[in-house]
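Incident review: delayed structure delivery

Summary: a single-chain prediction request sat in the queue longer than the usual turnaround. Root cause was a stuck worker, restarted by the on-call engineer. No data loss occurred. The affected request and its eventual output are reproduced below so the record is complete for anyone auditing the incident later.

Affected input:
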Amino acid sequence: MIGIFALSLPDNVGPSHLLAVTDIASPPILGPTELRGRVLYDEVAVLNEDAVLSHSRDRFAPIVGEGADQETFRFFVELPSDVPGLGSQKNTYFGILRRRGLPGDLEKLYRYSGYKIPDEYYVLFSSVKAMRREYIDEIIELNVFLIFLVIMQFIFRFRIKRIDKSAMANDSSAPT
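Output delivered after worker restart:
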C-alpha cells in the first residue's frame, strides 16, 4: 500500500513549468517545476529522522514573493542538507512540486509557530528520490520486520514440534 502511494507521487517526466510564488490564481501543475521567489532562511525547519536502517536530515524553508505577506506560507522548498549554513541566496529553484508534501510534523511546527499555511500548500523537492525517501525507508523497515516475523515463526514451529515429540515419547514410555 505504501509503495503504491509512493509511486503515485509526481515524477520528473515532462517539461518543467515556470512558476512564480506570487501566481496564486490557479493551482500549480505538479511535477517538474522552476519556482521563483525569495526563501526565508530565518524560517528553516530541520527534520532529523533516525530509523532502524536509515538516517535523514531534511531542511525545508518557506519561499515567498518580494513584498508578500511573510506570515502566510503557500510554497516551501527543500534545501540541501549537506550544505552547512544557509546556502546560496538564489531566487530560482528547480525540482519536483508536490501538493501538501511537508514530511513529519513540519506543517504543525509552522502552524504552532504562528504562521498561516493554507490547506493547499506546495513543496518543491530537489529530486524524486528525496520526495519518496520516507516511503521507501518505511517499506524497507516493514520488510525487515516481516522477515524477522517469518524467522520467528519457523523457530517457534520447530520448537513446538520438538515439544510435541518429547510429550509423545513421554506418553509412550509411561507405564499403563
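Verification: Helices lie at 2-7, 106-112, 128-173.
Action items: add queue-age alerting; document worker restart procedure.
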